[in-house]
Amino acid sequence: MQYMDCVEVTVEKERYAKHGVHKGMHGWICLDDFVNGTWLVNFPQCGEKDDIAMISVKEEDLKVIPVMYAAVNEEIKARFEEAEKSAKGFADNPDALSEYMI
Question: Is the pTM of this model over 0.85?
Fold first, then answer.
């Protein structure tokens, strides 16, 4: 791998998820320094939206891809936000579970 390579995250890890980065997200190596087995990777969104994150990712957790698609990041981000919202809904109101039919 090298500076400016397009990459995809190949694993789901808490250390990345706490920054909003999940398995399958696309980014690009934005610094030409390979430090302690990691690359600094930027994970953009489409258009003028703020980037999801710029974090160090272990090389073993990345694969080089020919083209990066920021739309993929937005889809994955939306899925995780929806799942988080659903989980919080149950935690905030555990009695609501009794309304579900089994």
Answer: no
